[in-house]
Each structure stands twice: as structure tokens, then as C-alpha cells.
Recover the amino acids of this structure.
């Protein structure tokens, strides 16, 4: 049995990283978190996102609710929601990074995990990582190499490079229904690879 691990996913950060680097943000989260924690005993994964209200944007709200429903069906996954605030014509996430950092330190202080795996490129998490390391715990950073803060990458004990080769078996083809329920894929992974290669 490996060390006990928890995965902390900065949802918005990952979404834009996938969109920019892979061109497909339809991740099979069950496969993804299990791959990240392959060498460990996965206790739980936390997905942090800001929840849009219907009055902010009805279309985004409905799409996000479908996505959250899908995530809630992923074994060992827990969704943690923060808020969206309007600034003029712009909608801004508030509290996601703070909530992730607080949970990272809080669960670490309780020794709920031995290894934390942070899926984000945001350097603002670095002080929380240092606090957790001071408790004698290990922290792994998994993200796209061109999108990650060098400070975060180097303060963590280990870096896992996310790229197409790492993720290709964890992707739904983007032409399938946006959010696939119960992890059922309607196309072969070879189609995903062809789609990726055709777009690059």
C-alpha cells in the first residue's frame, strides 16, 4: 500500500490549461485522478470551482450544473464551490484559491494525507505548500510546464508534467456530448488521438 494521497484541483486553472495545451477540456476525471495517484493510496480528490448563478449567465449556469453533477458521480471526488462576483461587465471567481490553500493546510495539519497532489499552475499556492512541507508531508505539483509558476514548481517535492501523451487516455473526444455521465465514453481513444493530431 502506498502513501495516503489527496488531490487538489484548481478547476478554472486546469480548464484553461487544457484548452490552451490540448484543445480538449473534456477530461475523464475518474481516470485522471487515478492516474495522478497511481503510486499512492488515493483517499479523495477535491475539485474547486466558482459557481455561476442563473442570474449571472443562464447558459453557463446550466452547463456548469451538468458538469458538477458529472463530477459528483466520480468516485472519491468532492466538489468545493466558491462564488462568482460581477465587476462591471466581467464575472470574476472569488475564493477558489483561498479555499484550496486552506484545505491543503487544514487536512495536512490533521495528517489526513501523506502526499498532496496540486493540479494548478498558480504560484499563490506556494506559501501553503511550504507550510505543509514543514509538517513533514510531501507535495506534488501536476500541470502544463509552460503554464506553471516556476516558484510553485520548485517549492513542491516533485513535478508531474501534464501534456497530451500523459492525458490522452483520460480524454473524452470533444465531439461527444460535453459532459458524459457515469464515465461512459462513446468514442474510442484512437478517435481522440486523431482529433488531437488533426488540430495540430
Amino acid at each position: 500500500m502506498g502513501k495516503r494521497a489527496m488531490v487538489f484541483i484548481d478547476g478554472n486553472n486546469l480548464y484553461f490549461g487544457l484548452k490552451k495545451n490540448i484543445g480538449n477540456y473534456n477530461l475523464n476525471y475518474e481516470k485522471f485522478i487515478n492516474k495522478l495517484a497511481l503510486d499512492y493510496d488515493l483517499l479523495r480528490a477535491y475539485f474547486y470551482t466558482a459557481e455561476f448563478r442563473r442570474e449571472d449567465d443562464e447558459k453557463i449556469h446550466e452547463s456548469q450544473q451538468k458538469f458538477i453533477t458529472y463530477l459528483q458521480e466520480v468516485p472519491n471526488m468532492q466538489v468545493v464551490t466558491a462564488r462568482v462576483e460581477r465587476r462591471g461587465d466581467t464575472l470574476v471567481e472569488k475564493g477558489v484559491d483561498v479555499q484550496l490553500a486552506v484545505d491543503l493546510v487544514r487536512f495536512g495539519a490533521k495528517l489526513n494525507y501523506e502526499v498532496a497532489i496540486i493540479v494548478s499552475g498558480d504560484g499563490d499556492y506556494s506559501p501553503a505548500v511550504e507550510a505543509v512541507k514543514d509538517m513533514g508531508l510531501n507535495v506534488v505539483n501536476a500541470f502544463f510546464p509552460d503554464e506553471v509558476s516556476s516558484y510553485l514548481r520548485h517549492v513542491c517535492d516533485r513535478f508531474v508534467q501534464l501534456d497530451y501523451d500523459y492525458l490522452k487516455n483520460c480524454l473524452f473526444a470533444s465531439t461527444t456530448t460535453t459532459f458524459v455521465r457515469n464515465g461512459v465514453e462513446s468514442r474510442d481513444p484512437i478517435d481522440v488521438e486523431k482529433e488531437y493530431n488533426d488540430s495540430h
Q: What stands out?
A: The first strand starts at residue 4 and ends at 10. The two ends are 40 Å apart (CA to CA). Helices lie at 11-21, 29-36, 58-72, 96-109, 126-134, 150-155, 164-167, 189-198.
